[in-house]
């Protein structure tokens, strides 16, 4: 019997609804594999911020560190500025734990309709590897200059040789274990000064991974190609902001942002990794019990992979796929009328 210690932060909005769904599925699949999870529930959220003036306690990072992994729902609530909720919890965790890879797989499941004609079931199976700790999301130089008519906001984008190299190596390695194709999202026509450096490092790392076929696309053209022919992509590696945008785009291509999972990984395992759906707290549907739990449940499957239970992880993804292929149980974002709970039951029944 293996027990993993998991810090659980449901957070805000639908984070409170999809997190229990993911834990139920984890417990169910764990029973089949002799794995148990010791959850530490943490109420870190905008509600806590309103109550106590901070999203998490001062020793929050230390407390998370004592766990094998972190599971997060989503943070963000109307009335609390997003920069408070995000810089107060999500971003510090990604940084403190050197979760420099944000892995975001995308599949068009059988039984789901992509809004695109070009993306039938089985046609799309790609992953976005997003740089997750630097780039456009840097803390350096972020300032709003007020007090004169030409107000301005500035922020430095930071691309370090070490930071870019490590995420590229991860992406090339992942491509090598998949279909062997890597696309680098760039904007190297000289307007964005950081990108020629990114490209230079891509060429450098490509030489170390000769079996991977790679190319690069300007981010604007890449968005168009993802819409026109998503099936051609295997691994897409991108900077923090480009990867953020691409992963909502690819999620929508697969049918709904509600189904997209993510793994914030520290590949060296020196720190806990964090698993969370790609979507946010969705205040527009929160509290109604109709959020799609697939993104959270699939994120739990990514956590199982990371913890060394790949078979259990694959079973969870297979149960999601079977539910979508063999039933018409769907949440409203996918055109159905099932609740979060009903969909979760259907997945557990197929484990
Ligand atoms: P969002 O992902 O919360 O919602 C975008 C749209 O997608 C909404 O219409 C929502 O109803 C729908 N949607 C999202 N997830 C869904 C699901 N599981 N099932 C069905 N429909 C779903 O993005 P947003 O509106 O840009 O942001 C809302 C809040 O969430 C903001 O405060 C934002 O900062 C925060 N946010 C947090 C995270 C995170 O914690 N990781 C990620 C993204 C956004
Ligand atoms: C995501 C989210 C976050 C990001 C926001 C909420 C800071 O959009 O995880 O994709 O941009 O990283
Ligand atoms: Mn995002």
- What sequence of helices (H) and strands (E) makes up the elements? EHEHHEHEEEEHEHEHEHEEHHH
Strand order of the largest sheet: 2-1-3-12-11-4-5-10-8-9
CATH fourth-tier homologous superfamily of the largest domain:
Isopropylmalate Dehydrogenase
**Given the structure, what is the number of helices?**
11
Features:
single chain, 351 residues, alpha/beta, Isopropylmalate Dehydrogenase, 10-stranded mixed beta sheet, two-stranded antiparallel ribbon, 12 strands, binds nicotinamide-adenine-dinucleotide, binds 3-isopropylmalic acid, binds manganese (II) ion, EC 1.1.1.83
Description:
It comes from Streptomyces synnematoformans. Residues 5-347 form the Isopropylmalate dehydrogenase-like domain. Its cofactor is Mn(2+); Mg(2+). It catalyses: (R)-malate + NAD(+) = pyruvate + CO2 + NADH. This is D-malate dehydrogenase (decarboxylating). By secondary structure, this protein is of the alpha/beta class. The chain has two domains: 1-105 and 260-351, Isopropylmalate Dehydrogenase (3-Layer(aba) Sandwich), CATH 3.40.718.10; 114-254, Isopropylmalate Dehydrogenase. Helix content is 40%, strand content 20%. The protein has eleven helices and twelve strands. It has helices spanning 15-33, 46-52, 60-65, 82-96, 161-177, 195-208, 219-228, 240-253, 294-306, 310-326, 340-349, and strands at residues 2-11, 35-41, 69-74, 101-107, 125-131, 143-145, 152-154, 181-186, 213-218, 235-238, 261-265, 273-277. Strands 2-1-3-12-11-4-5-10-8-9 form a ten-stranded mixed β-sheet, with helices on both faces. It has a two-stranded antiparallel sheet with strand order 6-7. Strand 11 and strand 12 form a beta hairpin. Helix 9 packs antiparallel against helix 10 (310-326). It is globular. Bound molecules: nicotinamide-adenine-dinucleotide (NAD), 3-isopropylmalic acid and manganese (II) ion (MN). Manganese (II) ion (MN) binds at residues 244, 248.
């Amino acid at each position: 019997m293996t027990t993993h210690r998991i810090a659980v932060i449901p957070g805000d909005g639908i984070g409170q609804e999809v997190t229990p769904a993911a834990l139920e599925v984890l417990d169910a699949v764990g029973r089949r594999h002799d794995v148990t999870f010791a959850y530490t529930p943490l109420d870190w959220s905008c509600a806590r911020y309103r109550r106590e003036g901070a999203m998490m306690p001062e020793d929050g990072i230390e407390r998370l560190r004592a766990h094998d992994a972190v599971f997060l729902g989503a943070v963000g609530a109307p009335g609390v500025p997003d920069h408070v909720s995000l810089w107060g919890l999500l971003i510090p965790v990604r940084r403190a734990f050197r979760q420099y890879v944000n892995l975001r797989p995308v599949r068009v499941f059988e039984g789901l309709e992509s809004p695109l004609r070009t993306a039938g079931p089985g046609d799309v199976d790609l992953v976005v590897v997003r740089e997750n700790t630097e780039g456009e999301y840097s803390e350096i130089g972020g300032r709003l200059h007020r007090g004169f008519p030409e107000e301005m906001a500035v922020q430095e984008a930071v691309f370090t040789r070490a930071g870019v190299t490590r995420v590229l190596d991860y992406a090339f390695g992942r491509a090598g274990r998949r279909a062997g194709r890597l696309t680098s999202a760039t904007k190297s026509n000289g307007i964005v000064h950081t990108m020629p450096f990114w490209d230079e490092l891509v060429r450098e790392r490509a030489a170390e991974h000769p079996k991977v076929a790679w190319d690069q696309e300007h981010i604007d053209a890449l968005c168009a190609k993802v819409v026109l022919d998503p099936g051609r992509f295997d691994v897409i590696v991108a900077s923090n902001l480009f990867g953020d945008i691409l992963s909502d785009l690819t999620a929508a291509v697969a049918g709904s942002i509600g189904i997209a999972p993510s793994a914030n990984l520290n590949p060296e395992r020196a720190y806990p990794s964090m698993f969370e759906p790609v979507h946010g707290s969705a205040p527009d549907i929160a509290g109604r019990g109709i959020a799609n739990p697939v993104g959270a449940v699939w994120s739990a499957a990514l956590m199982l992979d990371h913890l060394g239970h790949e078979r259990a992880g694959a079973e969870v993804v297979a149960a999601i796929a079977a539910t979508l292929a063999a039933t018409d149980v769907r949440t409203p974002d996918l055109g159905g009328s099932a609740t979060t709970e009903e969909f979760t039951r259907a997945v557990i029944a197929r484990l």
